[in-house]
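Q: Please design a sequence for this.
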């Protein structure tokens, strides 16, 4: 497979999977269970002083699937959360959720959640490695699992959790020219966060933060 070029000239294609395998591992971050170790990344990366004000202790283990579909132009598989959910309703997210005691690893949890939420069969998924542990304002310690997804899958959307699933070109998401820095007042607090609007979809918050971590781990100078 020939690599495609993003608008800043970087090759995005088979090279992505080679680079991911060289730079990521499936060694579980110790901070997942050792709460004395702070999350390496999080919702307040751009406003670290707000963590104390927020009064949030991220202690709830979770995992998400950063699934990169191995197409001629690779894509990232994302979901639109159900508009009636109690948290992050209507937002764009990776498939994922809480790590259960029965899950052998964060990667196993991410694959299970992807199958439950969008019917993505694990036989199409090849886990590659973990990104940095990500803490959220709702108290989750998320392990993002980067994986190659083989084409040919058929999705079955669980409409109680997800309204839609769609793919975004990886070259777009890994192009720093598409990484917006937004400043906004959220619940009376000045906040800064990343956003990557694409084709009428507003990718922001934790999802954009983890995509930024993917870019920084694999492509940033």
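A: Design:
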């Amino acid at each position: 497979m020939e690599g495609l070029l993003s608008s800043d000239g970087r090759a995005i294609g088979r090279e992505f999977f080679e680079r991911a395998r060289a730079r990521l591992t499936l060694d579980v971050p110790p901070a997942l269970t050792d709460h004395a170790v702070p999350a390496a990344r999080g919702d307040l990366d751009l406003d670290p002083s707000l963590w104390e004000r927020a009064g949030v202790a991220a202690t709830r283990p979770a995992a998400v699937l950063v699934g990169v579909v191995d197409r001629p132009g690779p894509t990232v598989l994302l979901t639109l959360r159900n508009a009636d959910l109690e948290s992050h309703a209507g937002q764009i997210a990776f498939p994922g959720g809480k790590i259960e005691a029965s899950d052998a690893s964060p990667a196993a949890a991410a694959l299970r959640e992807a199958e439950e939420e969008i019917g993505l069969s694990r036989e199409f998924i090849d886990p590659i490695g973990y990104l940095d542990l990500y803490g959220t304002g709702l108290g989750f310690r998320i392990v993002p699992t980067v994986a190659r997804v083989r084409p040919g899958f058929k999705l079955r959307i669980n409409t109680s959790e997800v309204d839609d699933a769609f793919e975004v070109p990886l070259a777009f998401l890994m192009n720093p020219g598409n990484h917006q820095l937004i400043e906004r007042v959220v619940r009376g607090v000045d906040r800064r966060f990343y956003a990557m609007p694409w084709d009428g979809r507003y990718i922001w918050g934790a999802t954009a933060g983890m995509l930024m971590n993917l870019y920084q781990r694999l492509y940033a100078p």
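Q: Thanks. Anything notable?
A: The first strand starts at residue 4 and ends at 5. The chain has five helices and 13 strands.
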